Amino acid sequence: MTHTHQYELMVILNPEIDERLVAPNLEKFLKVITNDGGTIDSLDIWGRRRLAYEIEKKTEGVYAVVNFTATAEATQELDRQLKLSEQIMRTKVLRAEDAIAMVASEKERSDAKAARKAAAPAKAPKA
C-alpha cells in the first residue's frame, strides 16, 4: 500500500486563457492523480489577479488552487506535466500539513509581535 498525502497545488495560468476553460484544462492534468487512485478534493478558481512580480513579461495571471490526496509519485508527475504546459506560468505544490504549518507559523509570528508590543512598557505620561 503506497502512502497518500494531502496536497495543495497552486497554479497560475496565462491571463489570456478564458476563465471558463481553466477547470476543464486542469482536469486533464488531474487525471494523473485520479488514474493513480488519488482523489481531487476541491478545485477553486480564484480568477485573474495581479502578480506579485512579472512572470514571462505578464503582470496578471489566473489563479487556481487544487486540494487533492495522492501518492508522492503521482504528485511529482502532475507537477512535471503542468510545467510542460504552455498555458501554465507557475505551479507550487505544498503538502497540506506544510501549508497549514506555514499559515500557523505566520500567525505565531504576528501573535508574538503583538504580544511584544503589548508587553512594551508604555511611556509614562508627563506630569
From TrEMBL:
Ribosomal protein keyword on record: yes
Region annotation Disordered: where it falls in the sequence: 107-127
Extent of Low complexity compositional bias: 117-127
InterPro entries listed in its UniProt record: Ribosomal_bS6, Ribosomal_bS6_sf, Ribosomal_S6_plastid/chlpt, Transl_elong_EF1B/ribsomal_bS6
GO cellular component: ribosome
Keyword field: Ribonucleoprotein, Ribosomal protein, RNA-binding, rRNA-binding
CDD domains to which the protein is assigned, alphabetical: bS6
Similarity section: Belongs to the bacterial ribosomal protein bS6 family.
Function comment: Binds together with bS18 to 16S ribosomal RNA.
Record-linked NCBIfam families: S6
Protein name: Small ribosomal subunit protein bS6
